[in-house]
## 1
Amino acid sequence: MNQDLTVGRPETVLWKFCLPLFGSILFQQLYNIADSLVAGKFIGETALASVGNSYEVTLIFLAFAFGCNMGCSVIVSQFFGAKEYGKVKTAVYTACAASAVLCAALMLGGFLGCGGLLRLINTPEEAFAGSKLYLDIYIWGLPFVFFYNIATGVFSALGDSRTPFLFLAVSSTSNIAVDILFVTAFDMGVAGVAWATFLCQGVSCVLATAAVFLRLRRIETHDPVSLFSPLILRKIAVIAIPSILQQSFISVGNIVIQGVINGFGTGVMAGYSAAVKLNNLVITSFTTLANGVSNYTAQNIGAQKLSRVKAGFRAGIKLVWMLSLPLCLLYFFAGHFVLRLFLNQPTESALRTGVYFLRILSPFYFIVSAKLVADGILRGSGRMLHFMAATFTDLILRVVLAVLLAHTALGSTGIWCSWPIGWTIAAVMSVRFYASGPWKNTAASEEDA
């Protein structure tokens, strides 16, 4: 069901919209960690290292898909908030066409360049073949990744966070079952993990895309609808390109960091692979909730209701901090138990690496979550230069410090220390940018504005 986020008590509206997003987060992360979980438990530590190593490369492709998602979602939200339904449909069609071209280019680049990239990041020989095989299969499924992201972006733009949740719930649980079937019953190894993801992504993409077009058919329009609009493409690109650059630079930075980590051997690689998946579960949770804040902000900007943005920021902070507390406590005090879900008979090096990583990062979840909520408002309001400045500051600090500290007496532990420093400085920037926005002199009304 489509939901107008511009009316009603802001905190109630935002929380009602974001709760299904949180459910989607859990299933999305279940989807993401299933490959590593099955590889580590049913194949072995080298397979876990291979999948984890490949994961950093797949994040580059996901960066482009995420950018298309955000560009489409924010612009459709603004048109929906302004009740310009013909432009809503044109924006969706335009985003689909542009994403198809971009996806084809990325597939070609991926097939030609992934092997060289794996060599560039010092992938150990014992993990190289598995990493390359996983990536080759993953690239064939890129169209599913792109169009699924477009579909979920449209649903969020229309205020519907429940439908994506239902799709993810089915596809993620199916992915685990198919992962285990292919690896244990068919003895397909790393290839089984990759093919399971391919099949489940394909089914969820087809269903989600079909549901989007059925939803669009039900929206009555009185203004003209086009299959492609250069003007709307430019509007989408203004949001999408900075989002793509943000995620791409983060992915490239993570690959650089992965290259440094690979120099410490497969034990550290495996421990990092398990721990970073747990950390990404948290960061992606915050990011997805921040995306909900972006949709809320964009609809209210489209409806010219700036006073509701400040109340949305306050509600978003409450939501992410309620999530931060239990996750911080779990990872800091019981991280070694959670890590064993991924590691079957882990080496001392792998387990120690994962525990140190989680204990260093988890207390700073309160800081990075506040940054991401502020980023959500900056992106939803189109303040992309401020958004990029804070994001790139975080990334550059993390990469530079990771490389430098890895060569000190701290060793691999020094790499993990770079995360909190980058998060803290960037959070200060993002919150200051938010505070200087056009809504600063408006009252943060808790009632319908």
## 2
Amino acid sequence: MAVKVIMPKQGLQMTEGTITGWLVEEGGSCTEGTPLFEMETDKLTITMDAPATGTLLKIIHGVDAVVPITHTIAIIGEPGEDIAALLAEAEAQNPAAASTASAAPAAPAAAPAAPAAQAAPAKEQEGKKFATPRAKMRAEEKSVNVMDVPASGPDNLVIERDVLAYEPAPAVKATPLAKKIAEIENVDLSEVKGTGSHGKIVKNDILSAVAARIAAAQTVKAKEDGAPAGRTKRVVPMTKMRKIIAERMVASLQTEAQLQHVVRCDMTNAAALREVYKKKNKKISYNDIVLYATSRALMDFPMMNASITDEGIEMHDYVNLGMAVAIDTGLVVPNIKDADMMRIDEIGVVAKELADKAKNNTLGLAEMSGGTFTVSNLGMFGLDQFTAIINPPESGILAVGAITKTPVVVNDQIVIRPMMSVTLSYDHRIVDGAPAAEFLRRVKEYIEEPTLML
């Protein structure tokens, strides 16, 4: 019986995905659980597996198609099977995209296969090659092009052991991240001069090459654009991630009643807590303390850990704590799952792992979805205080500033203390001003007196 292949729903905010490649051709065979197609969300490119075993009878949406979640994008079944009803359903979802598909007949019955000695697999005959996600990951680690690796898997598929056994010929030296960016930006590594150790090409070399290319292609002469003599201007196209961030931030401000509260926290005891852990050969950061205090305060004030939906206010008895991480191409917010059940040192370990994955572009969808509250820390950039925009559908976000030595009054005496500003942005549709202020006060209490939450 034929089954539909649909664009999966990954997280509350995702409404559509872009198909970036089909790993099985129409009419080809596929096996449940093996790679079928690649899709791109606003933040990630991932490989999706086939939901069933059979023949890919019809591809309804091809490469570069932007498809809403849950829409049918292909049909898997047996050769010769009648799929008219499924095609009609797909056409009803998106008439423009499916009109040509509905007119196409079901895939014909497969002809008897030729003996193995007489013919190679169809994909291999056509010279096409595919790779599993793990093979791609290993290829990046070894700084090799996965398409150069001989395939031992079915239908010319490169698998992990192929990459592990592959020894490439001497090539241009470049870091895995530099190669990834070069691939995305279509930069020829052989034309880039490396500034890293022993001439290795690093990320900044690729970014400089991209900037130079954009400048050369889009610079307008002063006499043509009215710029001052000897000066020019250029346009840098927005990436898909940048466009999505812009759309979501504008939508957040337009749809949510966002207000802010600010407190200053005395970090003296937080610094002492770090020293206690240091003596135990455990390292925790000030950001770990903020994350831990926030996760505990959220359990004390459930409305700050809620989301607004069409049906009402959705309450969560768990804390998936988002942490905003800046990367070269924009901003991502991975989530520390079940943060409320972790020790402070455990939160620190997970936070570091997620930050490293974000910077290396290896975050998975599960790590990017399902957040209930977010913390954004820009203190390392020297900002005393700032306001963050809520990450929908969450009800709040904490903006954490730098720790600075500040004169304050303690017991009627002026003393110097390490102070840190924390700004809460909250959705007034869910939380009123007084409970929001109480929540922020609780965060302050936990940060200033860490023993209260340990």
## 3
Amino acid sequence: MNIKIRQGKLKGSVHIISSKSNVHRLLLAAALADKPTEIAMKGHSEDIEATGSCLMALGSQVESSPKGAYVTPIIAGTKRVAILDCRESGSTLRFLLPVAAALGQNILVEGKGRLPERPIDTLTELMAKHGCSLNSTHLPLEVSGKLMGGRYELPGNISSQFVTGLLFALPLLDTDSEIILTTKGESMGYISMTLHTLSLFGIEITKTESGYFVKGGQEYKTPAYVQAEGDWSNAAFWLCAGAVCGEMTCTGLQMDSPQGDKAILDILKQFGAVVEVVEDTVTVKGGNLHGCHIDGAQIPDLVPILSVLAAAAKGDTLIYNAGRLRIKESDRLAAMADCLTRLGISVEEGKDYLLIHGGKRKVSEEDVWIDAYHDHRIAMSAAIASIVLKQGVIVEGAECVAKSYPGFFADFIRLGGGADVL
């Protein structure tokens, strides 16, 4: 589906949908718990549906409820091979691989899009060393055997999702385990989210100098009812638009959230925007925006929309330590360099950085075609870029927003943007 963006001015208020990252974790913990759990949540996405369907394949029941989802725990002991279709969700894949193995469940894991290309060999090798039999290091993948406790060593800069999967799985084992990070961790905010979720369900994890100690034989205890957090990653699209267009308000955000992308508030201030916070509401107003330096190591999901903000700001912006964006749903560094270049912005692309020369460009009289690269965050960034850079844009493959934010274009239109399906 191609969408033509008509010019407008984004302004107003939007209630942010629930955090995809938070809901993934809550669904998994609820499925491992002793009794049913109701999860209050706003919105849905293809990735969340993938996790729900995989949990049901493992023996859980995930049903809609008036407030969101009602999850009945997995009934263990089945001998059949569970088929886990992770669709395009990296979180679903990397979380459930070790969890299914900890349950002793034989599985066939499938995926589509770019997911089969995304690396999981670090995780599969660890599982093979700890009691599992795997027929491959990539999808489709068959796994049998039961995961065993012990020492798990892995680099901290590969994927926080590997660590999260292990943190969910290892408490289920009979013996104690230790996770050793051999390099400095990246995207640590996501691991903080995992630890917070585990604590809600009574699981204790001890932070060590080099990683985490996980006591075996623990039981997940449901809180019965839990509220999912608003999504700071998706809020960032509207907040960055507000910094350029004049003013934007986002409600439903948790100020003490462990989500790493809450860093958008400090980054907006660094760019020169005015940020106002009242309880669960954030309002961003435009200011004298100027370029700055941004470390992308802990905030990979913010980099696409921050690249758009950098293009609108005066001067140079360097986004560095961002090499892992090349193995996301797309090569996000290359995708954003291509997007901004097509929009007339000068961009220098390095192995792990983007240098964006903002504030100077020539507006084309014709619409610019932007490839979303089957990546939800590229599609949404391109739409926002059209408005803030005042350039007609046609986003190719815009339907990929359904991966995390199916209602994005509906909110985009309601807030003053124009969008027509071609």
## 4
Amino acid sequence: MEKVLEINELCKTYPGFALKNISFSIEKGSIMGFVGRNGAGKSTTLRSILNFVHPDSGSIKIFGMEFKNSEDVIKQKVGYASSGTDYYPRKTLGQIIECTKMFYPTWNDSVCSHYLDKFNLDPSKKICQLSEGMKVKFHLVLALSHGAELLILDEPTSGLDPVSREELVIIFKKLAKQGVTILFSTHITSDLEKCADHITYIKKGEILASKSTESFLADYAPAITTLEDIMVHLEIEEEE
């Protein structure tokens, strides 16, 4: 199976924290949940993939290409959304869409309209008028509207109500069936159990596991039956 994303021995050191030899890969059309507590290194890893953070060492290949050598090509094929992304608060969604689409020759207005309607987003509204949950949905509209083949999502279900989260899970599963590859970090492990093919678990800057969701759960069954309980167990285990 084709590997869409390959990370090998990625390292990045900050005062008081370091990513240590991060390695994992994702195959085409699969969904990977990236989990770990706050400060474990999830966002730093995701930002390193897109060169927002410059790693000290290691390699990252996207569609077999290194970002530094093929940035323009890769950006056309990747969609990114983060719950922490800010836009000009007084601009309307429509104005931001018109600006964003100029950077993507593959932008599809029909797809954009479809997701705006699906998420009940009014293009005439300003960013400052949206709830945090609606901002997340808007970030996803932008990421989905240019035909991205890889979605990198940092806490995409953050701030969403249970119905909206379920709606996103269904969308993720449909996209994966169409060959779209999805990597997303989340604290809401129940969402992962519904859609993730693989789990990558990071703790204190190190990958402790990267395997199929079925295998990840099987490692702790029958003593621990849910992904949430497993994560709590793993986080507490070292501290005892």
